[in-house]
Amino acid sequence: MIRAKVVSMLLFLALLMGVNAMAQGATGAPNIVVILADDMHWHHPGFNGGPAETPNLDRLASGGSSLTQFYVHSVCSPTRAAFLTGRYPFRNGMEERSHGNDVAGMLTDERTLAEGLREAGYYTAIIGKWHLGNWHKRHLPMQRGFDYQYGLYGALIGYWDKCRERYYDWHRNEQTLREEGYSTTLIGQEFAKVVKAHDFKKPLFAYVPFNAVHGPDEAPVDLLEKYRALVAKRPGEGDFEAKKYAMLDAMDQSIGKMLGTLEAKGVLENTLIVFFNDNGGRKSNPPYRGGKGENTEGGVRVPCILHWPGNVPAKQKVDGMMHVVDLYPTLLGIGGGSLDQSLPIDGIDMWDTITAGKPSERSEVVYSVPGWEKADTGPIAIRKGDYKLLGEALFNIEQDPSEETDIAGAHPEIYQALHQRLLELASERRIPETHTNISKTIDEPLLVFGEEENANPPPWLEPYVKGLPPTKRELQRAQNRKKQDSK
Ligand SMILES: [Ca+2]
């Protein structure tokens, strides 16, 4: 009897280990899911005390570690390029945003995190917003290390119509995709589909950059009504906040679907989930000053959460200074990838800082380097230790995180040294690709992003984009013409 019990227990253990080995994949590396928010305000999600209902993000935050000094760049493309290459935008050609109607993209000799993880045995998928070049094939995700692609190449699409102005921007595996629905919901659904279909003998790297809560401010009606009722009771808030809360709530619901799918597939326990925001929100980001497009803390200091039960401590705050470039070596390290590459890496592997209390080795963060007038990374800015040079001002971030007191006059030597350092870095800049309007490079009309897709558009596309209601810009133009005519 006892022996039978022991045998059945051993069998059970073997089975458990087998299941575990399967969940871990053949390489033993965890799945890595990186979820990115777009233009989220620091103080909007529940885990930062905000009124938007974000139970799923709150669950990740309380079950994982939160980085309290995690820095990005002040707008979309520079942050995304830094994340995927481990290198600052002044090196990878993405100081200037990839604009909507634009042929330029991230320099093609850069190695991406997706390439590194694929080399290490991962299946790599991007589900969401790319924004590192939306025209030439060489810039698109499937040429930059991703086995699977879904979502938009650029930015600013309508959440329902998937168009920026009258340019369509929704694709699966680099084919133009007609799909009804709200993009935030669709991204969560697509992730679920990919996870359900995936054989986890191979670990999964899924990069899931939502276009929420970036403009245009479009939210599902039921959520909008809910938050309009809420902001009516909150002095100083109005429709802007109601829409942003509603869009964030919708994103959180999609994240809930993602977590549920990983759980149902039995792989959540062996999945490292990273959540961060690409730049500060457009309005205010208290307790920090400023927001999107600025190098004040409100523009570049964003929430970052890591969640992997049993491997990343729960309910922990990690205060060491980090920059988004650090995720590249950190995630490659966890995934068993190589850091052997010709281009030098700015990132530092922060795994022991996040999980084992090791002090952060990062002493410098570079936000914006002088000498490139079209850079979208904002006024020159660099931080070294506690001090941050921001344009003509100097702040002690440790003592004055809200950047209220300019101490440049009191510390001319620090001010000079930081300027000098920025000039040194400027001499290391790599020249980006030339930004040119796509329409100037083609004879046929621009209907959809992706050069090959536009050359062979599906039959439904032209009537679809022509049938859309007038855009804000078109209405503006019509109004201007009217004014001209009446003169
Ligand atoms: Ca953004």
Automatic annotation (TrEMBL):
CDD domains: 4-S (cd16029). Residues 1-23 form the signal peptide. PANTHER family: ARYLSULFATASE, ARYLSULFATASE B. InterPro entries: Alkaline_phosphatase_core_sf, ARSB, Sulfatase_CS, Sulfatase_N. Belongs to the sulfatase family. Keywords: Calcium, Glycoprotein, Hydrolase, Metal-binding, Signal. This is Arylsulfatase. Residues 30-335 form the Sulfatase N-terminal domain. The keyword Lipoprotein does not apply. GO terms for molecular function: metal ion binding; sulfuric ester hydrolase activity. It comes from the Bacteria. Residues 471-487 have a biased composition (Basic and acidic residues). Residues 454-487 are annotated as: Disordered.
